[in-house]
Design goal:
By secondary structure, this protein is of the alpha+beta class. It has eleven helices and 30 strands.
C-alpha cells in the first residue's frame, strides 16, 4: 500500500497529514461595517490551517505583498480578486480561502485605489513577528507607500480558492440566489441545495430549460433540510456567459423563473432578464439521464461520482443498510455506489457449482465484513455529527464515510455469491462497537478488523485459485487495494506511518473469524454460525519491551492458556511469505524478530515451522495484532 512513496516524500507527506489532523480555520472579514479594515488585523496560524476571507462593502480584495513593499502585489503572490458588495453588514456570497503552508510571516493589503485602501491602513498579517518586522511596522510602511496600489481590478485570483455560493431554492422560493452574477475566471461556483426537490442544469441562451450538450448537470435532490449538506461545484473556465436552470417539471420551475446566469451581458439582447423571459415561454424542462456531469457533487463534503438516475437519495447511508444483509437481487441506492466510487461486480462469472470450502470462506468473509460495516458506520456518525465532531478535520470524516460505503459494497460481494448458490448468508450480530468513547480505541479496532479482512481474503484466494471456485479470485482481489488504502488512512489518523508493504499477510480465515467472534461479538442469536474452526482464546500480551530511540518492539511477554502443555512458539505472520517463529521462554517472554515492520499478527502455537495455511491446526491462542516499528508523533 502506498508503495510508490520515496522515503523522503513519506516523511513529508505524513507530517502534512499529521498537521491536517489538527488544522483550524480562521474567518477574516474584509471591510465589514464600512471600515477600511481587516478583522482580525493579525492572527497566528499553523501549517495546514486555513483562512477564509469574507467581503463587505464596497469593493475589496486580498493581495499579498513583501514586508518592504506594501501595497504592491508580490511576484506570484496570493490574490483573491476584487469582490464587489453593496452591503456593509451582509457578507458577499463570494469567499476566498488560503492554506497556510509554514510559519513564515504573510503580509496582505487591500489594493483598492478608489480611496487608497492600503495607504489608509487596510492591511493584514499572518504570523507577524513580535519584534523587528512587526505588523505595526508593516502598517506604517503601507501608510507611506506610493500610489497606485496593484494589481488593478480584473486581475484573476491566485494562490487560494475563490468560491461563489449559490442557494438553490433559496428561502423556499423557486429561485437561485444570487441568480445574476459577474465572476472571475477560476472561481468555483458552489450550488447548495435547499427544499424541496431541485436540480441544476446548464443550458444555452437560446434554449432555456433544455440541457446544453457538454454542459454541467446535477441531479434532483429531495430534501427537507436547510442546509441539506448537498452541494454541486463547477469552475468558471472563461468569460463566456453561463446559463442554468432547475429542471423540475412539477410547478415548472424553469418556466416559473428558477434560472440563473454567470457573466451575462448587462445590456443588449442577451441579458439575464432576456434569458428569464425566454424561459417563461419554453417547452417542458428536461435533464440528462445520468448525473452529475462536468461538475462535482458532494454530500456533507463526500464526493459522489455518479447517480444512476436523476434523483439522489440523501439518506442512502442509513442504519438499515448496516444492520441487515441485502436480500437476493437487491441493489444499493446509487448514492452508495457514488460515495464508494463504484459498485459490486457487474458479472461474477459464477461457476455451475460451489464447493463446501468456498461456502465456508465466503461466510467467514461476510461475518468479518458485518463487523467492519458496523464499526465504520458507528464511527462515521460520531465523527460527522456526534460526540467526536471536530476531533479530525471534516475531510477526514468524509473519507470515513467513503470507507463505510466501500465496506457495504464489499459485503454485497459475499452475500451476492452465497445467495446465487442458495447458500445461507450470515446475519448481523451485536457488537461492542460503542463500548468505548475513545476515538483512538475505535481506530485501533477498525484497523484490526480491516487487516483481518485483508488477511482472510488472501487465504480465500489461495484456496480458490486452483479449483473450480477460481471465479471468486478476481472479485476478492479487486477489493484488496481499497482496504489497503483504508488501512493506510487509519495508520496516519493514529499518527503512524502508513505501513507500506509489498504484499499483504495471509492468515487462515478460521483464525480471522475466531478473532472477530472472540473480541467484538457480544451476541448473535440465531445468526451464530461456525466455519469449521473453533474460537481460540485471545493471546494475552502482558508486557512490551521497546527500544527507546527507534521505537522498535524488541520483546513481548505472553500468557499460555491453562491446559496447554509442552513447548510453545509465537508465529509472526507478516506480509505473505513473511512468517517467522520465536520460542516462548519459561516466563512467557518472546523475542520479536528484528526484520518485522508495521503491523503483524501473532499466534501462539504448539509447533513451529508450519506453513501459514496450517497454523490454525496447532494454534492455542490468538491471533493478536501487534505494532512493531515506526511509531511517530506519540
Amino acid at each position: 500500500m502506498l508503495s510508490w512513496f520515496e522515503s523522503s516524500s513519506i516523511a513529508f507527506g505524513l507530517a502534512a497529514f499529521a498537521t491536517l489532523a489538527n488544522a483550524a480555520n480562521y474567518d477574516v472579514t474584509v471591510g465589514k461595517g464600512g471600515q477600511l479594515k481587516f478583522d482580525p488585523e493579525t492572527l497566528t496560524a499553523q501549517p495546514g490551517d486555513t483562512v477564509t476571507y469574507k467581503f463587505f462593502a464596497k469593493n475589496h480584495a486580498v493581495a499579498q505583498s513583501a514586508f518592504a513593499t506594501p501595497c504592491q502585489l508580490q511576484d506570484k503572490g496570493i490574490f483573491s480578486g476584487f469582490t464587489p458588495n453593496t452591503s456593509p453588514d451582509v457578507e458577499a456570497p463570494t469567499t476566498f480561502t488560503i492554506t497556510v503552508n509554514d510559519t513564515k510571516p504573510l503580509w496582505f493589503y487591500c489594493p483598492q485605489t478608489n480611496g487608497n485602501h492600503c495607504q489608509s491602513g487596510m492591511v493584514h498579517a499572518i504570523n507577524a513577528p513580535a519584534s523587528g518586522n512587526t505588523f505595526d511596522a508593516y502598517k506604517a510602511n503601507a501608510q507611506k507607500a506610493a500610489t497606485p496600489s496593484t494589481p488593478p481590478a480584473g486581475t484573476l485570483p491566485s494562490g487560494g480558492l475563490r468560491k461563489l455560493h449559490i442557494d438553490v431554492g433559496f428561502d423556499g422560493n423557486l429561485v437561485f440566489n444570487p441568480n445574476n452574477v459577474t465572476e472571475l475566471v477560476g472561481t468555483v461556483l458552489e450550488f447548495g441545495y435547499n427544499p424541496q426537490n431541485h436540480s441544476i442544469v446548464q443550458s444555452s441562451f437560446d434554449k432555456p430549460c433544455q440541457p446544453l450538450d457538454g454542459g454541467f448537470a446535477a441531479p434532483f435532490v429531495p430534501t427537507m433540510q436547510t442546509p441539506s449538506g448537498v452541494t454541486f461545484e463547477v469552475m468558471v473556465e472563461n468569460t463566456n456567459p453561463i446559463w442554468f436552470y432547475c429542471a423540475q417539471t412539477t410547478k415548472t420551475h424553469c418556466q416559473a423563473g428558477m434560472v440563473g446566469s454567470i457573466n451575462a451581458a448587462a445590456t443588449g439582447n442577451k441579458t439575464f432578464d432576456a434569458f428569464a423571459a425566454l424561459a417563461a415561454k419554453a417547452p417542458p424542462s428536461t435533464i440528462p439521464p445520468n448525473t452529475p456531469l462536468a461538475g462535482t457533487l458532494k454530500v456533507n463534503g463526500t464526493i459522489i461520482s455518479n447517480v444512476g438516475g436523476n434523483v439522489l437519495n440523501t439518506t442512502g447511508l442509513d442504519p438499515s443498510l448496516v444492520g441487515n444483509v441485502p436480500p437476493p437481487g437487491s441493489s444499493y441506492s446509487p448514492y452508495i455506489g457514488g460515495m464508494a466510487g463504484g459498485d459490486q461486480p457487474a458479472d461474477y462469472q459464477w461457476a455451475p457449482s460451489i464447493s463446501d470450502e468456498a461456502v465456508e470462506f465466503l461466510q467467514a468473509l461476510q461475518y468479518i465484513s458485518n463487523a467492519l460495516v458496523a464499526f465504520l458506520f458507528d464511527g462515521y456518525v460520531r465523527l460527522a455529527e456526534g460526540a467526536w465532531t471536530g476531533v479530525y478535520p471534516q475531510s477526514i470524516a468524509q473519507t470515513l464515510g467513503s470507507l463505510t460505503a466501500q465496506a457495504l459494497i464489499h459485503r454485497k460481494t459475499y452475500s451476492d455469491s452465497l445467495q446465487h448458490y442458495s447458500k445461507p448468508t450470515v446475519g448481523v450480530c451485536q457488537y461492542n462497537v460503542s463500548a468505548s468513547d475513545d476515538v483512538d480505541a475505535w481506530l485501533q479496532d477498525i484497523q484490526t478488523i480491516i487487516t483481518l479482512s485483508i488477511s482472510a481474503k488472501v487465504d480465500a484466494m489461495a484456496l480458490a485459485a486452483t479449483t473450480d471456485d477460481s471465479w471468486v479470485v478476481p472479485a476478492l482481489a479487486t477489493e484488496l487495494g481499497a482496504q489497503a488504502r483504508m488501512s493506510a488512512v487509519l495508520n496516519m489518523m493514529q499518527s503512524r506511518y502508513a505501513a507500506a508493504a509489498p504484499r499483504e499477510a495471509l492468515m487462515p480465515y478460521q483464525l480471522a473469524y475466531s478473532y472477530i467472534a472472540n473480541k467484538y461479538v457480544t451476541s448473535c442469536g440465531d445468526n451464530s454460525m461456525s466455519f469449521g474452526g473453533k474460537v481460540f482464546p485471545s493471546l494475552e500480551v502482558a508486557n512490551k519491551t521497546v527500544e527507546p530511540s527507534s521505537g522498535r518492539l524488541l520483546a513481548i511477554k505472553v500468557e499460555v492458556p491453562s491446559g496447554s502443555t509442552g513447548d510453545h512458539w509465537v508465529a509472526w505472520i507478516g506480509p505473505w511469505g513473511g512468517l517467522q517463529y520465536t520460542a516462548v521462554a519459561a516466563d512467557g517472554t518472546v523475542a520479536v524478530p528484528a526484520s518485522l515492520s508495521g503491523y503483524v499478527w501473532a499466534v501462539l502455537t504448539t509447533a513451529k515451522d508450519l506453513k501459514a495455511r496450517d497454523i490454525e491446526s496447532k494454534a492455542v491462542a490468538g491471533p493478536e495484532m501487534i505494532w512493531t516499528t515506526q511509531q511517530w508523533g506519540s
